[in-house]
# Entry
Amino acid sequence: MERIPIIGSEDELWFDEFFFDSATASKLLLDLRDRISWIQPKIRMFGKWVDQPRLMSWQAEEKLHYSYSGITLIAEPFSREVAEIASRIKERTGFHFNSVLINYYRDGQDSMGWHADDEKELGYDPIIASVSFGAPRAFLLRHNHHKGMNLKLPLPSGSLLVMGKGMQINWKHSLPKRKHSEPRINLTFRKILIAE
Ligand SMILES: O=C(O)CCC(=O)C(=O)O
Ligand SMILES: [Mn+2]
# Structure
């Protein structure tokens, strides 16, 4: 893994552009797309219930509950593909994650707004491992206090981004809409500390 330098900050971002080779990444994109039972929960926005602009799935090693933007999801068990990806992350980084949020961006209109993965179930200053398959999309990061401190990372198919120390405390991230985009699937692996 290669550390991505952030000028003016000690917060940690690590990146492996070639975590999966392109053939494996293409196969995983299709297997995940076809085998996951995708859901599209509604979220509350400005007092209204609206569809989230993407499909998603929540998987965990054990039956865990998880509260995400005001909805509580019941986790499905890790699928075979997800278990393989998790064990490869363990091999590469040493980190063991017990849960994953999977997002399927069907086209350029699917997106994710600015947020931090700072749910209390993840504890203080969590490490998040993000694996991407399919169309490269720009992943944006912006510092909470230093205006102008921001990053734009194109996340190619098969890449692994690890958001480490400080990244959920001092930063927000997002995946903006694009005029055109082929499908993309992203998995953010997390470690849930407290099961409620
Ligand atoms: O799709 C991405 O690259 C980001 C996903 C994300 O931030 C999340 O699942 O919390
Ligand atoms: Mn996130």
Summary: The pocket of 2-oxoglutaric acid (ligand 1) is lined by residues 101, 103, 112, 117, 130, 139, 155, 173, 175, 186, 188 (CB under 6 Å).
